[in-house]
Specification:
Elements lengths: L1 H19 L6 H11 L4 E4 L6 H15 L11 E4 L3 H18 L5 E4 L5 H9 L4 E4 L1 H8 L4 H4 L5 E4 L2 H4 L3 H16 L4 E6 L5 H13 L4 E4 L6 E5 L19 H9 L4 E4 L3 H14 L7 E4 L5 H12 L5 E4 L14 E5 L5 H8 L10 E6 L5 H13 L13 H13 L5 H9 L9 H13 L13 E3 L5 E3 L2 H9 L9 E6 L4 E6 H4 L7 E4 L2 E9 L2 E6 L19 H15 L6 H5 L1 H10 L7 E9 L2 E7 L4 H15 L6 E4 L4 E5 L7 H7 L5 H9 L1 H16 L5 E2 L2 E2 L2 H18 L4 H14 L2 H13 L1 E5 L8 H10 L8 H18 L2
Parallel strand pairs: 1-6, 1-7, 2-4, 2-5, 3-4, 5-6, 8-13, 9-11, 9-12, 10-11, 12-13, 16-20, 21-27
Antiparallel strand pairs: 14-15, 16-17, 18-19, 19-20, 21-22, 22-24, 23-24, 25-26
Length: 823
């Protein structure tokens, strides 16, 4: 009984603190605290705004109060890992508020790449009671000596927003870091926090690995979060829309909607789009200068932090942002969320909607703004998906040997490792549970001497063995260089942007910087600036007198539609084919869909529609598998390869379909198309169709960087992307010729297929096609579904003296006239 009374004392203090705030803990929070204090690992699954932070953070505090450690605060107890630096700062504030309210003597600190050198040095000597950090900074901490002593008092690791990490290499980096910490502290408890994903059991297994996953608990908060979706409907509906044709024509309705609320987050899908919309809103409402801001990952940290603080304190009317603000905390006073363009995923829409009404019991509201009229169908489908909670899965990464090689050098730079012990640790992770002795031996040989083809170059011998058998980093200079390059985040190379007189604005990608000439203007960080010079990887600019200018393009310019959202779109189109237009969005696009059905037909569930149309450009073959952009990219290349023997083919694709343009008819019958769409010999044909060797060669740059073959950052020096690509290409060619069994080559090919081409999804799509009916129609004109694919093809071609845009506009007007003539 005495233990029960002691345990209750900490819990009672927490309940008392909640009561002082006129709140009551949720049952799922108390369930999490009870399971933590009982010594269990687990994952807390709760919708945005339900209080996951306190559910995970208060358990260790309750335990500390129960055992009388709440007044010490001298040793690290909780390590909190978060994927975003902005989220890290907010987590610190949230946890510190709880600590102060409970009267604990603990201190919470932040450690990211933005943390000052003096603070990082102090933290290496003594960590605070709670340290909030990122996956990269965790690896850095492990890379310093005395890691065992530093983390001996650690009791709990919380991995925040695990759904954002589990499907990429940063998640693998976390898994390896946790395996090292478990070796240091055998009684360590690990808890994950996650929003809704479809494969929650996989999320638990991936986070906890073989040591703890079998006995872990999953705690689910009631998912009663109400989400309301409203769309701003265009006044005029063109029946032949194309990608982005609305552009910023919806600026005035967006501005009026912003005026109706206290504060608004305006989400865009890309950084380029955020720059365009910020400029458009300021042009429409110049009096908003100082009241609206822009926020994305390439803007300088200090500028972002200023925006975040003004948003937190309610001083911002609106912030135009990207996924940099997808993840937030409970106390941001955001009244309204807007989504510019299709969300491309149900979970993404729910995540963004949850930034408003970000408290238990409140309704989240999101206002959607189309950049193409057919995106209204996507909004309607997203509402359906949210109602059904049809969120997407996140597939864990397996056997990324580049990350493993980096981890070996990281551990060697710290306390060093015993090979057998480290192999055991690594195999406890989900990512490397199936690692073979041969693969381990290859990675060890790679870090010991660079493998068989690089043995003549001493600087690739990164670890050395001591007499007692332990492995350490080969030298301290190599350790310093390794720490500068720890991480797995891919990029196109960052070039700083700053004013001539020195104020830093952020960074753009090197590929954009390389195209600038003196006097060029471009929009960046909400300003229009003029390029002066490129000096030592820094673009120097001055404010431009003109407000016109290009917008930088960053990687990831087009998000692919998720399979779940694509399925919901098919449901909406199938309903429309039966004459059911179930909401305002579908009613608004009804003229387009009815014209599509009149001139051709609408894609139905259980069938694949193929339209064959003849124009002056040739024979157009439009297919609508409706599997999303990435799967269609591979499918378009596959079909062009399989049918290319009959004549030259131009292939185009979007989220809904594919166009193959040829001088001749490529396939006459359904049987011909079924043969071209067969999943047989898929791997061989896709490799031949896409020159995956060249794709793998380019992709190899990031693998080589993570594995330590390429070193972008050296003390006092930075290598350009062009230099890195040339070096990685040289490595790729050398390995192909002299070390063909190099496992990094095989990994590069595998990742190209899985990530860039979504090979598994493509295979599943072809299997589904084989089970569906093919319906071939021959319309006399371009249909509303075909038109955006045709326009995209025309947009990439030189059209005599007529611009592509002018021709697209002209043909659209002709088709509109033809449709009107039928009335």
């Amino acid at each position: 009984m005495r233990a029960g009374v002691e345990k209750a004392s900490g819990l009672q203090r927490v309940r008392g603190w909640f009561a002082s705030l006129e709140r009551t803990p949720f049952p799922f929070q108390e369930e999490a605290w009870a399971n933590y204090t009982a010594g269990r690992n687990g994952l807390i699954h709760a919708p945005t705004g339900m209080g996951k932070t306190l559910a995970a953070g208060l358990g260790p505090m309750i335990e500390a109060m129960d055992v009388g450690e709440s007044g010490k605060g001298q040793e690290i107890t909780i390590l909190w890992i978060t994927p975003l630096r902005a989220l890290a700062a907010d987590t610190v504030e949230s946890l510190q508020t709880a600590i102060d309210g409970l009267g604990l003597k603990w201190k919470v600190e932040l450690r990211t790449s933005d943390t000052s050198a003096s603070v990082r040095k102090r933290q290496r000597d003594r960590l605070p009671a709670i340290l909030v950090t990122t996956p990269e900074s965790l690896s850095l901490l492990i890379s310093y000596p005395d890691v065992t002593e530093r983390f001996r008092s650690l009791r709990c690791v919380v991995v925040d927003e695990w759904h954002e990490l589990m499907g990429n290499k940063r998640g693998v980096q976390v898994q390896l870091g946790l395996s090292r910490l478990r070796a240091v502290q055998s009684e360590l408890r690990i808890w994950g926090l996650s929003a809704t994903i479809a494969n929650m059991d996989d999320a638990i297994a991936t986070l906890l690995g073989s040591v703890a996953a079998g006995t872990a608990v999953r705690i689910d908060a009631p998912d009663r979060k109400a989400i309301e979706l409203e769309s701003l409907l265009p006044d005029i509906i063109e029946r032949f829309p194309w990608t982005g044709h609305l552009g910023t024509r919806m600026t005035e309705p967006v501005a009026k909607k912003i005026e109706s609320a206290g504060s608004t987050l305006v989400f865009t899908n890309t950084r380029s789009q955020s720059e365009l919309w910020f400029r458009a809103l300021l042009t429409a409402r110049p009096q908003w200068i100082g009241e609206i801001a822009i926020h994305h990952g390439s803007i300088d940290r200090k500028l972002r932090q200023t925006v975040e603080e003004m948003l937190r304190t309610g001083k911002m009317k609106a912030v135009v942002c990207t996924s940099s603000l997808d993840l937030g905390v409970d106390f941001w006073p955001v009244d309204q969320v807007m989504q510019i363009g299709g969300p491309k995923g149900i979970a993404r829409m729910m995540q963004r909607a949850g930034r408003s009404g970000h408290r238990p019991g409140a309704t989240s509201r999101i206002v959607c703004v189309p950049t193409q009229v057919m995106e209204l169908v996507e909004f309607s489908a997203a509402r359906l998906g949210m109602q059904r909670r049809a969120t997407e899965s996140r597939e864990p990464v397996r056997l990324p040997l580049d990350v493993l090689a980096q981890h070996l050098v990281t551990v060697a730079a710290g306390d060093g490792f015993d090979e057998a012990q480290l192999l055991y640790e690594v195999r406890t992770t989900h990512a490397f549970a199936t690692l073979t002795d041969e693969q381990w031996g290859w990675v060890m040989d790679f870090v010991k001497r660079g493998g068989p083809s690089l043995v003549a170059y001493p600087h690739f011998a990164r670890v050395r063995q001591l007499e007692d058998g332990r492995w350490l980093i080969a030298s301290e200079p190599l350790a310093r260089m390794h720490r500068m390059n720890i991480g797995t985040i891919a990029s196109d190379g960052a070039v700083a942007v700053q004013f001539v007189k020195g104020r830093h604005l952020g960074s753009v990608e090197e590929s954009f910087a390389a195209k600038l000439k003196a006097g060029d203007t471009f929009a960046f960080a909400g300003r229009t600036v003029q390029f002066v010079r490129l000096h030592e990887m820094t673009i120097q600019v001055r404010l431009a007198t003109s407000k016109r200018g290009t917008v930088p393009r960053w990687m990831g310019g087009k998000l692919p539609m998720s399979p779940n959202l694509a399925d919901a779109v098919r449901i909406r189109l199938d309903e429309a084919d039966r004459g059911e237009f179930v909401d305002a969005e579908m009613q608004r696009v009804r003229p387009i869909l009815e014209l599509q059905r009149r001139w051709s037909r609408l894609p139905r569930i259980g069938e694949v529609l193929i339209e064959q149309i003849r124009t002056r450009d040739g024979h157009h073959h439009f297919l609508y598998p409706m599997q999303g952009r990435l799967a269609h990219e591979g499918l378009a290349a596959l079909l062009a390869h399989r049918l290319g023997g009959r004549g030259p083919i131009t292939a185009t694709f979007n989220d809904l379909g594919i166009e193959l343009l040829s001088p001749i008819v490529l396939a006459e019958t359904a049987e011909d198309w079924m043969a071209a769409l067969s999943p047989d010999r898929l791997l061989e044909d896709i490799v031949a169709a896409l020159n995956t060797g060249e794709l793998a060669k380019r992709h190899f740059r990031e693998i080589a960087r993570v594995a330590g073959l390429l070193v972008p950052m050296r003390p006092g020096a930075h290598r350009s992307v062009r230099q890195l690509q040339a070096s990685s290409g040289l490595f790729f060619d050398v390995f192909n010729e002299f070390d063909p069994n190099n496992l990094l080559l095989e990994q590069s090919r595998r990742e190209v297929l899985q990530q860039q081409l979504e090979f598994n999804r493509l295979r599943a799509a072809l299997v589904n096609v084989g089970q569906e009916s093919l319906v071939i129609v021959t319309p006399h004109k371009l249909t509303p579904l075909a038109f955006p694919l045709w326009a995209e093809t025309i947009g990439t071609q030189q059209v005599r003296s007529e611009s592509a845009a002018a021709r697209i506009e002209r043909v659209a007007l002709q088709l509109e006239a033809a449709a009107d003539a039928e009335r």
